[in-house]
Amino acid sequence: MRDSIIDSIKSLPPLSKTIVEINRVYKDENSSVADMAKAIEGDPMIVANLLKAASSPLYGFSKDITNASQAVSLFGMSMTRSIAIGNSVRKLLNVDLEPYGISSDKFAEISSLQAAFLSAWYSKIDRSKAQKLFLPVFLQETGKIIIASEIIQNDETISFKSEVEGSNNLAQLEKSYVSMTSAEVTALVFEHWNFDEEVINIIKYADNPSSAPDDLKESANILNIIKTIIPINKPLSEQAINFGLKKAENSGFDISEVKQAIDLVSELM
Q: Where do the HDOD domain residues begin and end (predicted)?
């Protein structure tokens, strides 16, 4: 099945011109919020999704957001880029997550919840690093869309879905069915689309942080802890939280800070 997944990734259409422009603006150190707003204004769907995100309680904005410039100013360049790319990617991949037992809307909600958890937790520790990790955290589950498609094509939806419901290790389950984890598939998708090498590698090791190069271990651990606490099959369940806290403790993080983030994000569900 690994070869089949790789073939599916190779056949993916290119990212839209708007996303290419958003990436260009983001990488340009001389670019401004106005430049980012201009980059997205030509795509009504991206603007609509950005405004929808701005009204979500996940981000806690107290004022009404009515245009792209306001949204970009409040979100910042990194979060704006992540939200725009995330919505565009889900549209390109034609989401059907029935094997995982969730809808496309629920999938998007959990991706946003994981990103909100990053902000609530790690922004207080290292704001710059948190901003850099926002994109990988927000998009780290993308590979599940490809895996779900493979499961459907092989008529394994019922058996896979039944195992997802009780699984405490989705990466291991994915590996048993398609020989790859979601993180590995996501990394290949973004490699296909020529994303930043660092983003690709952080995601690549998110299901197995111990194998990551030393300079990426902490970032891979952060992604892994977040997806452990907020897995798509049982986000913020008592069991998921306990597993995540244990991983955080073993990785040397301050458990009290993780618990504070859990409390904050739990109020948003």
A: 12-209
Domain boundaries, the chain: 2-13+78-266
Taking CA atoms, 168 is separated from 39, 184, 231, 238, in Å, by: 41, 18, 9, 12
**Integer Cα distance of 158 and 167 in angstroms:** 14
Look up residue 148 and give its two tokens: 């779900």
Pick from 65, 89, 69: nearest CA to 138: 89
| SS3 of residue 142 by DSSP | coil
Domain 2-13+78-266 has CATH 1.10.3210.10: yes
Q: pLDDT tens digits, residue range 32-80?
A: 999 999 999 888 888 888 888 888 777 766 677 788 888 888 888 888 9
Query: Do residues 211 and 190 lie in contact, with contact meaning Cβ atoms separated by under 8 Å?
Result: no
What letters, b where the CB count within 10 A reaches 16 and e where it falls short, cover 158-188? Answer: eebbebbeebeebbebbeebbebbbbbbbbb
Neighbouring CB atoms inside 10 A of 106's CB total: 14
List CB contacts of 49: < 8 A, sequence separation 6 or more. 83, 84, 87
**Residue 98: which residues within 8 A CB-CB, separation 6 or more?**
148, 152, 157, 161
Q: Answer whether 190's CB lies under 8 Å from 199's CB.
A: yes
Q: What is the pTM of this model?
A: 0.89
- Distance, in Å, from the CA atom of 178 to the CA atom of 182, rounded to the nearest integer, reads 10
Report the alpha-carbon distance of residue 246 to residue 13 in Å, rounded. 40
* CA–CA separation, 167 and 231 (whole Å): 10
Residues 6+ apart with CB under 8 A from 202: 133, 136, 216, 219, 220, 223
Q: For residue 179, give the H/E element and its range.
A: none
